[in-house]
Amino acid sequence: MKNGEVYGSYLVTILVVAILSVGLMHMLQGGEESRDSIVGNEKTDSGRTDGSSGENGNPDGTAGGNAGTQTSVNPTVRVVLMSTGYQEIVHPEVRIAASSGLHITYGGQTEEWQAGEVLTVRPDDARFAAGNIRVTAAGQGDEIQVYQIERGYGNPCYAGTLELRTTAEGIVMINELPLEDYLCKVVPSEMPASYEMEALKAQAVCARSYAYRQAASYGYPEYEAHMNDSTDYQVYNNSQPQDTAAAAVRETAGQVLLYQGQIAVTYYYSTSCGRTTDMEAWGDAVNESNAYLQSVAVCGDEGDYEKELPWYHWTAQVPVTTLSNLVGLNTGVDVGTLTSVEVTRRGAGDVALQIVASGDKGSVTVDTENKIRRALGGSGYTIVKNDGTAVGSTELLPSAFFTIEKSGEMFVIEGGGYGHGIGMSQNGANEMAKQGKGYQEILGLFYPGTELSAY
């Protein structure tokens, strides 16, 4: 070849290599994005209070998801919508409508549904032959109302997309929407929207951090869904959306708690007895990764923040026969008539970690706070709260911060707090906010060693 031809050949070669390199870099960057994104990468036990706060946290102490340092801002989450009363994840039929009408897509086909008209879908719907059915509201900003579900405020409405999947048991509904929109309906469902703004902001950060952790993997891989809308994770859309809760989400947008560079699992519950506990309450060893979930004093210059609240302290006098029956029923061990119930091991914050219930037919040992609360819980006796009001007992003892003594034909239980006691006391946060504490200080008290970070 001539020199010019050689030069031209070299130039073409260089250009081809450059183009291929750019394409390769783009592919690699795209792959990195998909690995860092929550979308496509895929559980909290709650003791509800007397119309106030909720609690989250797995009684077995598991986080329910992998730690993540995701980089997506406001990623999409997929939430399984359970039936009325959060009994099942399947529905015998689905009945939905939107004031602006519905867009229905399946297998590449699209249908338009009239404004306000109810769409009924059953498991044998012919549309399922083409695949999953996805439904959105026709109008921008409009939401889809679901009529076969009852929540705390009636038939709930959902933003984003409803995806319907048919199964042998019925229809599974998945709500797909941006995480920040999801939080706007978690915060008022987990904390009363009438609470102080700084407490609501603390709740928003906790809910966001917890949601990111759950969204790091699929809780329901068979449905490509991250979580459900019950206390298994966080309660979603059980209470009507409120401007205050939405403002708390908006004003903390993207903020999470980090511990050692990872998103912290931000457990929370209703009310403390003036102190919290650590992960040993759930049978987990306290280690370097969960050290921020430690026992702290929930108090200020004037004493315990919650000392005037109803669930701060409570007492119950339980007839021996009643507690004997409940222990036998709840543990599956017939110990006969109880002669003693002894707390044989305590943990941080003086929480009960183990009890031994002994009767004339034998004894049973119960470990961890949730199982202890369940063993001594159930209907049949009255609990008198700090303010003198009395309520009926429920399936769980209010908390595992208690003492128990036999007095004649009664067992006297004296306790404090409501919930599992790990992480943030929601009512404690509200009382702190009333005393002028900001959400950063609130979070710093309940999760020592964590860092508030824009994510």
Point out poorly predicted stretches.
1-53, 60-71
Number of helical elements: 8
CA radius of gyration is 26 Å
Structural class from helices and strands? alpha+beta
Specify the oligomeric state. Answer: single chain
Strand content: 25-35%
Instruction: Estimate the helix proportion, in percent.
Output: 10-25%
Shape: globular
Mean pLDDT level:
87
Q: Ends: how far apart? A: 59 Å
| Largest sheet data | 8 strands, mixed
Please tally the β strands and state the result.
27
Structure explained in plain terms:
The protein is α+β, with helices and mostly antiparallel strands and 455 residues long. The protein has a domain at 314-415. 24% of the residues lie in helices and 26% in strands. It has helices spanning 3-36, 179-190, 197-214, 243-251, 320-331, 369-375, 426-434, 439-446, and strands spanning 76-81, 90-91, 94-97, 102-106, 109-113, 119-121, 133-137, 144-146, 157-158, 161-166, 171-178, 227-228, 255-259, 262-263, 268-269, 299-300, 303-304, 314-319, 338-346, 352-359, 362-367, 382-385, 390-392, 402-407, 410-415, 424-425, 451-454. The strands form 7 sheets. Strands 1, 2, 4, 5, 7, 10, 11 and 12 form an 8-stranded mixed beta sheet that branches. It has a 5-stranded antiparallel beta sheet with strand order 23-22-18-25-24. Strands 6-3-8-9 form a 4-stranded antiparallel beta sheet, with no helix packed on it. Strand 24 (402-407) and strand 25 form a beta hairpin. Residues 1-53 and 60-71 have low confidence and may be disordered. Residues 169-259 form the Sporulation stage II protein D amidase enhancer LytB N-terminal domain. Keywords: Membrane, Transmembrane, Transmembrane helix.
